[in-house]
Amino acid sequence: MKQFFKEIFEYHHHFNQKLLIEIEKHIEKLPERTFPLFCHVLNAHQVWNSRILNFTSFGVRDIHKIEDCAEIDRTNSSDTLKVIESEGFEKIIHYKTFRGQEFSNSVRDILFHSSNHSTHHRGQIVSDFRQAGIEPIVTDYIFYKR
Fold this sequence. Notes:
Layout: H1 2-26, H2 34-53, H3 69-86, E1 92-96, E2 102-106, H4 107-131, H5 141-145
Antiparallel strand pairs: 1-2
Helix pairs in contact: 1-3, 1-4, 2-3, 2-4
């Protein structure tokens, strides 16, 4: 399972970096929501890492400077690899949502959720590119594996 999750999160890092380049290139033509949505992808990833590794998180709606996003993504990727290497997948993480609700989930479930969340919102960003008349990059996992 470690290798599987490593590959999944390497895929996310790969396409987050590529998508950021494309966002920077076309920022003036893209819908207003596109860059904040990309920041949300980074923020949510960081929040889940912080819940597992116990450090202060971003807010899920924080907007970053575009020039900081590549490094934020690299840090997220590195932190997730630490989680994969050092935490047991069945370990239960107790956390509070931003609304103060308490929940508990396994590391495995958190990693799976974080992965799905990123994929979902990258799909929305790809749709934004199409709506703006810009041919988006292909971000499907199978293309990464080819």
